[in-house]
Design brief:
Length: 71
């Protein structure tokens, strides 16, 4: 991949993507700790958010690993 990818640009792109994932994780965490939301939201909605959290956590871990490769 040498010469095909500018490491600085790729690292910046990955960091931007990581920031978006971290923001979404924080928003979902806020929902999942809100007792009013949990009391009123239908179970499928809560399950969807929990599944999305797991997916985001996996993506975050992968991005962090990729960012380390450019350090």
């Amino acid at each position: 991949l040498d010469g095909l990818i500018d490491p600085k640009q790729e690292k910046a792109r990955l960091n931007k993507q990581l920031g978006k994932i971290e923001l979404e994780i924080a928003q979902n965490s806020k929902k999942l700790t809100n007792t009013a939301f949990l009391a009123n939201a239908p179970a499928p909605v809560i399950d969807k958010i929990k599944n999305r959290q797991a997916e985001l956590a996996a993506n975050k871990q992968l991005l962090e690993k990729q960012i380390k490769q450019f350090s």
